[in-house]
Amino acid sequence: MKPSIITIIPARYASTRFPGKPLADMLGKPMIQRVVERASSTGSRVVVATDDQRIYDCVQSFGAEAVMTSPEHRSGTDRCIEAYELVGQGEEIMLNLQGDEPFIQPEQIEALISAFDRAETQIATLAEAFAPDTPDIALCDPNVVKLVQGDLGQALYFSRSLVPHQRGRSEQLCQHHTYYKHIGLYAFRTNILPELKALPASPLELAESLEQLRWLAAGYRIAVEQTALSTIGIDTPDDMERACQYLRELERTRSDR
Question: What's this model's pTM, rounded to 2 decimal places?
Answer without folding.
Answer: 0.92
